[in-house]
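Example 547, ligand molybdenum atom.
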Amino acid sequence: MNDQQRPRVSIPSSILLGVLAVGAALGVSNLVAGVVNPPSTPFLAVGNAAIDRTPKGLREFGISTFGANDKPVLLLGVGIAMVVLGVVTGLISRRSAAPGIVLVGVLGVVGLLAVHSRPNTTTAGLVSPVVAAIAGVATLLVLRRVALARATAPNRYRHGATATEVAAASRPAPKDADQLATVGEGSSHGISRRGFLGTSAGVAVVAGAAGYGGQLLGRVDVGSSQAAVGTLTPVDPLPTVAASADFSADKGLSFITSNADFYRVDIALGDGPALTTQDWSLRIHGMVDKEITISFADLVKRPLIEKRLTFTCISYVIGSQLVSTADWVGVSLADLISEAGPQAGADQIFSMSSDGYTASTPLDAVIDPARGAMLAVNMNGEPLPQVHGFPVRMIVPGFYGYCSATKWLVDIEVTTFAAKKAYWTTRDYAQTAPVKTGSKIVYPKGLTQPVPAGTVTATGAAWSQPNGISKVEVQYEDGAWMEARLGDDEGPSSWRMWRIDLPSVPAGNHFLSCRAYDGKGRLQSAVMSEVLPDGQSGLHRINFSAM
Ligand SMILES: Nc1nc2c(c(=O)[nH]1)N[C@H]1C(S)=C(S)[C@@H](COP(=O)(O)O)O[C@H]1N2
Ligand SMILES: [Mo]
């Protein structure tokens, strides 16, 4: 029989069966992953692998375009890619199953490599993509067979069949069955089509149930664990922020950023790793005299400290939202590392998240008691939200988050910069980067929200962790720099609010810029640089309108 004579699956049926083959593979893989090793679903692993391989420009683009939605957008992209691959699988398998089997096999290998590349995968987790590929191929073969089934073999016991249908189905088969087969389902009538649709619906239900079942099995009850942690009381609780420190609040920037508004940036998908305090422990090892492994219960028995700290992301673009402030309760990291006893020659703290994210921070900064590096367990009086690293995250004031603020922290290695490179360092970011002194204008908000002409009270924030802010200046149009009034100092690693009255601003469009001096009197750089490799410098300059 030459190729032309082979029965062919119709285009719609081939699309349906291709999508179902990929869907069945994903559903079954989710189930297996749920049973053996929850974090290792091939779907998420492929998403994570995609993130890890995102070119640097695209990362900054993704963060600035989609903000906190960059993850759902990515998952949607992986989902769409799966549907497209399903369609392709079906269409290339119309005459023969071989091309589709190859494609599903390739997908299985990609899933296997992706799962394998995840640091939190156990060997058992590798079973999931393998079983997925088998389920995909089996679905493809079964559905093709049903789609091409001869009209001569109807299922006369089909559930719900009417008496007439059963009678019709039991009539003798046409003699030219072979001829029918060569033209495939195209000439077969309703019975085989319904058989195909019924089987397809069955596959869809089983795949969906498997996927959902995997979801349920893999579920970790983070909420109960957070509730059990609750609000922890530090030895010296911080007073609430005075109104005289918070004086941009009326213009839309409160001193403390609520947990819901606090910016979020990470490479994790969904809400990030789902850990409980029971599962959690931290190991401190490497170039130390005494290795330490500490449980959550033992961690919070240590003296609890509270700090009001401003976080800045390396992706902070001048004037953007990637800078936030919260009250953090936790334990001194400087003390813990000192107890482990760093050995001579070590210069790096290499911290790792349960999902394999790594950050490199200078050892001397971490053990400097004045800087106040900590392991945080509460954020603004609540257990850490999952997206911010529950149950424990690291904080080292004065460094951008990427090289200091590891969330879902489980491992700290005392080592050297020469020996180990962290996640973003291998992707062209600096191995470590102190936060650059920054300032931004919060009000006026720009051209879109005109302000009344006359006296305009401009306001904003400035930060320079860990030295604090000593002065902020504002320039209206191209005039002389004028000193702004500063809000109360809430500590050298918190931002400081500023405001200034601009008298008699006429109707029309105007320019406004600001610049800050750090606690040592050093002026912020006016040179507009790129984010890469160590953060953007430059002044915030806005155009606003008065009317
Ligand atoms: N595990 C983990 N921790 C991480 C990251 C990450 O991708 N994974 N990103 C870092 C970056 S780039 C920043 S700016 C801060 C942001 O912390 P937040 O999301 O709580 O604001 O977390 C840091 N810690
Ligand atoms: Mo960041």
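Summary: The longest helix spans residues 190-218.
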